[in-house]
């Protein structure tokens, strides 16, 4: 236990010290992206690991990004207030969509389809209100006057962004672990197996499912808002819609949804892979990088159903029987 | 303790339970028997909130519970088991019972839930080892786990959907004794559902017999076992008369009447 704590402290200190030692802006940029997406994937896995496979998280991310940016540009609301408001918006939407689903027992593939529609709707709304949101051309938060960077949550310095993203990512892991150790995990495991039996154990099935959905949606909206503030440019394709939702599902599953760092490993692998392919293919064969990326993802999912990190941990622990939670043989999307 | 009035459950045009009324007194074991499809499990599902009744009232300790959500009924003091055990395979045996202890008693504290789980597991005779997997349990073990989960929710009334079909004679007797001990030592009132009459008749204080969703007999085990309609339901009218008589005699012998 103490050794583990020491390991985590050293790892965290090393991560904090990194930008002061290694100042390459491209590498820092990639790292910030990895941290923000890791946080988004971790958020997804908070409900995804319990078989609540959502393809609507692109919608939550889009809301986080666009609500924050729109409030700033049109009403001058600081992101410090805008981000909580955008998260609240995503939370309310999550409850509106999820409550009827859970109340009327829409589970498995049907639940996936409902959430898919949610992504589509958010994307359509962003595109349709192009007078405000810029539609598919994208949207840029207005630059703050100099000296008001903190108020506008706009920083030119990559190191600052790296540290913000690191803190949020770490907070995401803490939340993931807190849920993993709480009774909520037990209740959700039970619910994902048998809702009637869970209810007979006294579990309020609808309320427990709403809890994890709400936490997941709020965190995902935050990731969208952070992405927006960092990139200073958002478009429906990059922070919203079905493609982004699928990207979350793939990355989280590739990394492994049953371990805290799984989604992070997924983000590292998918983003590094995408960057390497993009650079090596360059302009010689536009689009081919995506094809290779897609094939590799399929192979990962077929041959490492517990995700890369999950499989590695299993291999290390293989003489001992995994004690809890990791017995699942398949990824949640294939579970029902 | 429990007063059921005019309970009806319709599935489309089919009346699974038709106007059934009964009472259960504090501290008794009521046997609920009937052939397959006679409405026993449907009544259980309505008592525990898994199914809302179409009509009728269910008063538990003077409170109307008909149509309440299942978790509210469970937290309110009714525990249930399922006919076919429904363990949570992704949790250990201990975690299965702690879950019931935590949520079934209003989510007070994890320590209290673990204590309740230990008591419940000890009561049914399962190991309290924290990591033992559900996969190691056989049919009898799974039924015990089902019972431990129900006990951990801290019930005043236990709905035991036992169906001892998968067990051998010794295991049946064991299961019957366990229910009696639960009543005697923990003071829990029990409704016990079964379709095999033998073992049940020895343990219960009263029996209620269902057929096609209606109550056809209710009373002391000895009286019910001799009831002409009950024998007819269990053996059919076409059965050889001597066979029926032999079966009735055997049933009486088993319960010592």
Fold topology:
The complex is a heterodimer of chains A (336) and B (257).
Chain A: H1 2-21, H2 25-48, H3 57-75, H4 79-103, H5 108-128, H6 130-133, H7 149-152, H8 158-181, H9 183-193, H10 195-200, H11 205-231, H12 236-239, H13 241-255, H14 262-281, H15 288-303, H16 308-317
Helix pairs in contact in A: 1-8, 2-8, 2-11, 2-13, 2-14, 3-4, 3-5, 3-11, 3-13, 4-11, 9-11, 13-14, 14-15
Chain B: E1 2-11, E2 14-24, E3 29-33, H1 40-47, E4 55-60, E5 63-64, H2 70-75, E6 78-80, H3 93-104, H4 110-124, H5 139-152, E7 157-161, H6 169-186, E8 189-194, H7 197-203, E9 206-211, E10 214-219, H8 221-226, H9 228-235, H10 241-255
Key features?
heterodimer; A: 336 residues; mainly alpha; ABC transporter involved in vitamin B12 uptake, BtuC; globular; disordered C terminus; B: alpha/beta; Rossmann fold; 2 domains; six-stranded mixed beta sheet; four-stranded antiparallel beta sheet; 10 helices; 10 strands
Tell me what you see in this structure.
The complex is a heterodimer of chains A (336) and B (257). By secondary structure, chain A is mainly alpha-helical. Chain A has one domain (2-334): ABC transporter involved in vitamin B12 uptake, BtuC (Orthogonal Bundle). Chain A is built from 16 helices and no strands. In chain A, helix 3 runs antiparallel to helix 4, helix 3 (57-75) crosses helix 13 and helix 4 (79-103) runs antiparallel to helix 11 (205-231). The radius of gyration of chain A is 20 Å and the shape is globular. Mean pLDDT of chain A is 89; it is low at 320-336. Chain B is α/β, with parallel strands linked by helices. Chain B folds into 2 domains: 2-189, P-loop containing nucleotide triphosphate hydrolases (Rossmann fold, 3-Layer(aba) Sandwich), CATH 3.40.50.300; 216-257, no CATH class. Chain B is built from 10 helices and 10 strands. In chain B, the strands form 2 sheets. In chain B, strands 6-7-8-3-9-10 form a 6-stranded mixed sheet, sandwiched between helices. Chain B has a 4-stranded antiparallel sheet with strand order 2-1-4-5, covered by helices on one side. In chain B, helix 3 (93-104) crosses helix 4 (110-124), helix 3 packs parallel to helix 5 and helix 6 (169-186) runs parallel beside helix 7. The longest helix of chain B is centred in the last third of the chain and has 18 residues, at 169-186. The radius of gyration of chain B is 18 Å and the shape is globular. The two termini of chain B are 28 Å apart. Classes of the chains: A mainly alpha (336), B alpha/beta (257). At the A-B interface, helix 9 and helix 10 of A face helix 2 and helix 3 of B.
């Amino acid at each position: 236990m103490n050794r583990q704590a020491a390991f985590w402290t050293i790892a965290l200190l090393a991560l904090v010290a990194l930008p002061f030692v290694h100042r390459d802006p491209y590498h820092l940029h990639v790292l910030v992206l990895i941290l923000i997406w890791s946080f988004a994937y971790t958020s997804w896995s908070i409900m995804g690991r319990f078989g609540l496979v959502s393809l609507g998280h692109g919608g939550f991310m889009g809301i986080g990004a666009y609500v924050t940016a729109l409030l700033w540009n049109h009403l001058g609301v600081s992101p410090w207030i805008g981000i909580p408001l955008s998260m609240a918006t995503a939370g309310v939407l999550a409850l509106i969509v999820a409550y009827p689903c859970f109340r009327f027992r829409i589970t498995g593939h049907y639940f996936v389809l409902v959430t898919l529609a949610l992504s589509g709707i958010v994307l359509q709304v962003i595109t349709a209100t192009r007078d405000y949101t810029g539609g598919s051309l994208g949207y840029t938060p207005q630059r703050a006057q100099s000296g008001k960077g903190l108020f506008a949550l706009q920083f030119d310095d990559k190191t600052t962004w790296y540290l913000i993203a690191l803190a949020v990512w770490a907070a995401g892991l803490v939340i993931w672990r807190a849920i993993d150790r709480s009774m909520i995990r037990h209740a959700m495991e039970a619910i994902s197996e048998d809702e009637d039996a869970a209810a007979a154990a006294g579990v309020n099935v609808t309320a427990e499912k709403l809890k994890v959905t709400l936490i997941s949606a709020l965190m995902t909206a935050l990731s969208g808002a952070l992405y927006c503030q960092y990139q200073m440019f958002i478009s429906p394709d990059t922070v919203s819609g079905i493609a982004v939702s699928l990207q979350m599902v793939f990355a989280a599953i590739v990394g492994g949804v049953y371990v805290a760092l799984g989604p992070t490993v997924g983000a590292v692998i998918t983003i590094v892979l995408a960057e390497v392919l993009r650079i090596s293919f360059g302009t010689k064969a536009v689009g081919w990088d995506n094809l290779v990326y897609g094939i590799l993802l399929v192979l990962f999912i077929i041959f490492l159903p517990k995700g890369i990190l999950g499989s590695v941990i299993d291999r290390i622990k293989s003489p001992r029987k995994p004690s809890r939670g990791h017995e699942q043989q398949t990824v949640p999307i294939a579970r029902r | 303790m429990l007063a059921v009035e005019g309970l009806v459950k319709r599935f489309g045009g089919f009346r699974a339970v038709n106007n059934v009324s009964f009472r259960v007194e504090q501290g008794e074991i009521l046997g609920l028997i009937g052939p397959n499809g006679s409405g026993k499990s449907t009544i259980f599902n309505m008592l525990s909130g898994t199914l809302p009744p179409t009509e009728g009232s269910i008063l538990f300790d003077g409170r109307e519970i008909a149509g309440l959500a299942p978790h509210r009924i469970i937290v309110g003091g009714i525990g249930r088991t399922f006919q076919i055990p429904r363990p949570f395979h992704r949790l250990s045996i201990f975690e299965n019972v702690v879950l019931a202890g935590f949520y079934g008693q209003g989510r007070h504290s994890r320590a209290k839930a673990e204590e309740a789980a230990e008591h419940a597991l000890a009561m049914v005779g399962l190991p309290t080892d924290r990591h033992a997997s559900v996969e190691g349990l056989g049919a009898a073990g799974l039924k015990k786990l089902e019972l431990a989960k129900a006990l951990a929710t801290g019930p005043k009334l236990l709905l035991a959907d036992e169906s001892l079909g998968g067990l051998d004679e010794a295991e049946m007797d064991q299961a019957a004794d366990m229910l009696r001990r639960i009543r005697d030592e923990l003071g829990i009132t029990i409704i016990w559902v079964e379709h095999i009459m033998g073992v049940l008749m020895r343990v219960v204080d009263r029996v209620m017999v269902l057929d096609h969703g209606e109550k056809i007999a209710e009373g002391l085990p000895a009286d019910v076992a001799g009831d002409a309609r009950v024998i007819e339901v269990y053996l059919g009218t076409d059965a050889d008369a001597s066979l029926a008589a032999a079966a009735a005699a055997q049933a009486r012998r088993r319960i010592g009447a």
